[in-house]
């Protein structure tokens, strides 16, 4: 039975969310960034098992660009509000939800299809809503759900990274690349990263990379081979459509190439992999099981509490400028961390 005070708090909160309007980005057709349109809509109500979250910051990721274009293996029904990564406060709880209360500061690893974090309010299943450590800002919370979860799955679940292993992160200055460098360095691997500008290379080094290389340089393949003549035992490729063929040259005997991101096709010479007995594996964040997500949340919450891992935010955009955020991520080779939206 609810206490009188708890019942009053819940009724009062419902009275201030019911019937009010909020802002959100909606995509009515797959296509270019102009499809990201700001609209006014009714604050949704959480059904059983779901949570309504007031979004204070939302992460912007390459995967949302692929989905917006309609070029992804799993697409939402139109129209939809993009975004899975975000942080804010619990606004309302659906029936059957336990372990959360109105007002909790939370970060998200999942949203209800069509009701993403590019909005002032979003809907999430309770399994995708997690308490944010008291010492972590909402900006930090909004940087976790896609970038660090993808990096953790790539390094620890798929690659079985070993301490002291030489790891090359192709495209290390963006959100997932940053997370890979930080998690790998903290674990005890030797991390090498590439970036697209001198500033990006300095950023990569600041994250703990042993060395950084400019992947826009005509000499960078030569430099990477000279740095490790025997190759790299693990390569994480954020843009496999551009780098996969090069990665087959750089991978060590018995090594692995893990495809984290790709925007198109790629051509490789299979004999390079045969002679090295190396392998290529793909990864998709949406294949996380609920048990894996819980394992990740326990892992990253401890890292945040001890401040061993602190995400870096490169740029913040207003919600109405979501299309500019997509253009920035897609075109900016000199990225330096996460890009966020501020809904309020």
Your description of this structure?
- By secondary structure, the protein is an alpha/beta fold.
- Helices cover 33% and strands 26% of the residues.
- The protein is built from eleven helices and 15 strands.
- The strands form three sheets. Strands 3, 4, 5, 6, 7, 14 and 15 form a seven-stranded mixed sheet that branches.
- Helix 4 crosses helix 10.
- The protein is globular.
- The N terminus is likely disordered.
Q: Topology of this protein?
A:
Blueprint: H1 4-17, E1 21-26, E2 37-42, E3 50-60, H2 62-69, E4 86-93, E5 105-108, E6 121-125, E7 129-131, H3 138-141, H4 147-158, E8 166-170, H5 175-187, E9 190-195, H6 198-206, E10 211-214, H7 220-227, E11 232-237, H8 240-250, E12 251-259, H9 270-276, E13 279-282, H10 290-305, E14 313-318, H11 322-331, E15 338-342
Parallel strand pairs: 8-9, 8-11, 9-10, 11-12, 12-13, 14-15
Antiparallel strand pairs: 1-2, 3-4, 3-6, 3-15, 4-5, 5-7
Characteristic terms for this protein:
344 residues; globular; seven-stranded mixed sheet; alpha/beta; disordered N terminus; six-stranded parallel sheet
Helix content: 25-40%
State the end-to-end distance: 36 Å
The chain-level mean pLDDT equals 92
Low-confidence parts: 1-16
Compressed to H and E, one letter per element, the order equals: HEEEHEEEEHHEHEHEHEHEHEHEHE
Short description:
The protein is an alpha/beta fold and 344 residues long. Helix content is 33%, strand content 26%.
């Amino acid at each position: 039975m609810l206490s009188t005070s708890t019942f009053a708090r819940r009724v009062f909160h419902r009275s201030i969310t019911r019937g009010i309007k909020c802002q959100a980005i909606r995509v009515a057709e797959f296509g270019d960034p102009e499809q990201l349109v700001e609209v006014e809509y009714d604050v949704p109500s959480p059904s059983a098992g779901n949570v309504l979250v007031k979004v204070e910051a939302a992460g912007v990721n390459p995967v949302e660009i692929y989905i917006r274009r309609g070029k992804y293996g799993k697409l939402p029904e139109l129209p939809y509000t993009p975004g899975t990564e975000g942080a804010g406060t619990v606004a309302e709880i659906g029936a059957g939800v336990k372990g959360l209360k109105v007002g909790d500061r939370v970060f998200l690893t999942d949203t209800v299809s069509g009701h993403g974090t590019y909005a002032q309010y979003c809907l999430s299943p309770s399994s995708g809503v997690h308490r944010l450590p008291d010492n972590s800002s909402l900006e930090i919370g909004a940087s976790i759900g896609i970038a660090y979860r993808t990096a953790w799955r790539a390094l620890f679940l798929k690659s079985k990274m070993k301490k002291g292993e030489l790891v090359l992160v192709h495209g290390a200055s963006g959100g997932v690349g940053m997370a890979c460098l930080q998690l790998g360095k903290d674990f005890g691997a030797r991390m090498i990263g590439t970036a697209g500008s001198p500033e990006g290379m300095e950023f990569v080094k600041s994250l703990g990379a042993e060395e950084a290389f400019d992947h826009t340089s005509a000499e960078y393949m030569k430099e990477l081979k000279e740095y490790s003549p025997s190759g790299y035992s693990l390569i994480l490729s954020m843009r496999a459509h551009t780098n996969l063929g090069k990665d087959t040259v750089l991978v060590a005997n018995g090594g692995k190439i893990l495809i984290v991101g790709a925007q198109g096709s790629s051509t490789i010479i299979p004999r390079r992999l045969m002679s090295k007995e190396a392998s290529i594996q793909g990864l998709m964040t949406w294949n996380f099981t609920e048990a894996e997500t819980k394992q990740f949340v326990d892992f990253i919450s401890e890292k945040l509490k001890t401040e061993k891992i602190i995400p870096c935010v490169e740029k913040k955009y207003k919600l109405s400028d979501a299309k500019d955020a997509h253009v920035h991520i897609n075109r900016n080779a000199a990225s330096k961390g996460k890009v966020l939206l501020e809904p309020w």
